[in-house]
Amino acid sequence: MNVLIIGGGGREHALAWKLARSPDVKKIYCAPGNAGTARRGENVPLKITDVEGLLQLAREKSIDLTVVGPDDALAAGIVDRFQADGRRIFGPTREAARLEWSKIFTKDFLLRHGIPTAAAGRFERVEDALAFCGTRSYPLVVKADGLATGKGVIIAQDRDAAERAVREMMVAGRFGDAGRRVLIEEFLTGPEISLHALIDSAHHRLLPVAQDYKRVGEGNLGENTGGMGSASPPAISLPNDLPQRVETGIMQPFMAGLHAEKLRFQGLLFPGLMLTPTGPRVLEFNARFGDPETQVILPRLQSDLLPILEATIDGRLPQVEMRVDPRAAVCVILASSGYPGSYETGKIITGLETIPPDSDDLFVFHAGTRLDGENVVTSGGRVLGVTALGRDLGEARDRAYDAADRIAFEGRYLRRDIAAAGAVA
Question: Sorting pLDDT into bands at 50, 70 and 90, what band is 173?
């Protein structure tokens, strides 16, 4: 079977690594891919939103299955176009993926179907948003409605900060069209975890729970990023009744909402949950695998990923086996200095050869990398994700940091508190 993976980050490298282990996969193509995926298959330099170009590639290479990584490709309607061409593709349609690419749509969906979430106001006019800021208690959360590469969320500690965030989004265009409409939410307190649920329209199956460390600085300080590391299971004590509350309070009403609104969601639903004193509340929905959560979830998944993806497409999820490694996994992101702001690229990466390429418990997932002759060089803000398995989180964490410290490039930056006891995600 020939497989095409859309995307070029750490998530896509993890997907390529996992699918390459399947005996039924003949060849993997990645578009555009990175230096890591190049060693698992063939990279093709196409943009993730070039739907027609990607479709032509699928035809030319006799692709049997396409797996969509990034949200932008889903929002561009790649699933709809491939399905119209009779091609098998893993991911929700553009309309179903609206649960990710419009936070206002998602908020309304949650409220319509009684799924616990934060109270919020939705605004299309800057004057209305600014007036709302003057009537609230603080802190507040200001969110761009559309896709903003994981950075369109600002926690405002006071009215001045909230109004500044509104103006940056709605007037200055900090996030482009994504910020022309905003959601202003109450600030929830509690630890945050990431769920990953495979959904075949009629059924759902949960993958291992993970935790993402979003802020750039240790101690949960600084700007939001796409994620500076992850752990599975989370480095916090989870309530004993959490599985039941997730099932009855979130997944069951979500599935009922899909049916009621005739949304055919087939793919991966990734809800971000805040574990508040009154129970779990949904912060947001994503319609694809998380990054960097995928880099800890897939190493813990002992089952072949290919039949799981195919069962999701075919509506056969209850029939497939999903075995999970009882060991813990920790991923530490090596980033470029300056990220999530401006940063330099083209820095030579050394030390990669110290990590065995075919290890079963230690992995280097490439994100912002490319090949420059014989060298692997940086090409993005998040450069590498170093993941290790261990008997518990402490051992996995120690092994991940030991491996990360063997890798170097100019301007390398990493958080030192990923999965540490008491660290805030």
Answer: confident
- Alpha carbons within 13 A on the beta-carbon side of 198: 25
- Under 8 Å between Cβ of 174 and 150: no
State which fold the 2-91 domain adopts.
Rossmann fold (3.40.50)
In percent, the amount of the chain with pLDDT more than 70 equals 99
DSSP designation for 245 = H
Residue labelled with tokens 């948003």: 129
pLDDT range class, residue 146, cuts 50, 70, 90? confident
Q: Which CATH superfamily is domain 125-180 in?
A: ATP-grasp fold, A domain (3.30.1490.20)
**pLDDT at 379 exceeding the cut of 60:** yes
Domains 192-319 and 328-413 share a fold: no
Q: Which of 59-68, 293-302, 415-424 has the lowest mean pLDDT?
A: 415-424
What the block records as the tokens of 414 is 């990493």
Domain layout of the chain by residue ranges: 2-91, 125-180, 192-319, 328-413
Phi-psi region of 313 (alpha: psi -120 to 50; beta: other; left: phi over 0): alpha
Would you give the DSSP letter of residue 348? B
**Alpha-carbon span 152 to 144, nearest angstrom:** 5
Q: Where are the beta strands (DSSP E) in 109-246?
A: 120-123, 140-144, 153-156, 182-186, 192-194, 197-200, 204-206, 211-212, 215-217, 221-224, 229-232
Q: Does domain 328-413 have CATH number 3.90.600.10?
A: yes
- As a whole number of angstroms, the distance between CA 200 and CA 270 comes to 14
- Kindly state the greatest CA–CA separation across the chain: 60
Give the C-alpha separation, 286 to 71, whole Å: 8
Identify whether the C-beta of residue 204 lies closer than 8 Å to the C-beta of residue 153.
Answer: no
Q: Between β-strands 89-90 and 65-68, what pairing exists: parallel, antiparallel or unpaired?
A: parallel
Cα 68 from Cα 231, distance rounded (Å): 23
Within 13 Å of residue 70, how many CA atoms lie on the same side as its CB? 24
Cα Rg of the chain (Å, integer): 21
CATH architecture, domain defined by 192-319 = 2-Layer Sandwich (3.30)
Alpha carbon distance 365, 352 (integer Å): 11
Question: Which amino acid appears at position 422 of this protein?
Answer: G
Report the pLDDT value the prediction gives residue 422, as an integer from 0 to 100: 58
Mean pLDDT, the chain, integer: 95
